[in-house]
Amino acid sequence: MTFIEKIKQPLFWNNVAKVAIPFFIIVVLISLLWSSWSAIFAGDFDTVNALNFADGRWKNFWVSKILICFFYGVYTTNKKMK
To answer: Residue 61's pLDDT is what?
Structure first.
């Protein structure tokens, strides 16, 4: 079955969501821990906000993670679905 035929099926998009959503949560948690480890465990969420989300940085933070997870979900679902 070709990729175009697969994406026309509702089951394909269900499977993409099943893969992408948990992967998104994991990627966000790892990213926050990677960039703000000490601030998170110190309970200093103002610093976490300043490092990751303030001054328009939230756009890059969220858009990059959403795109990565979406394409990973599509890629994985395409490989596994027959």
So the answer is: 95
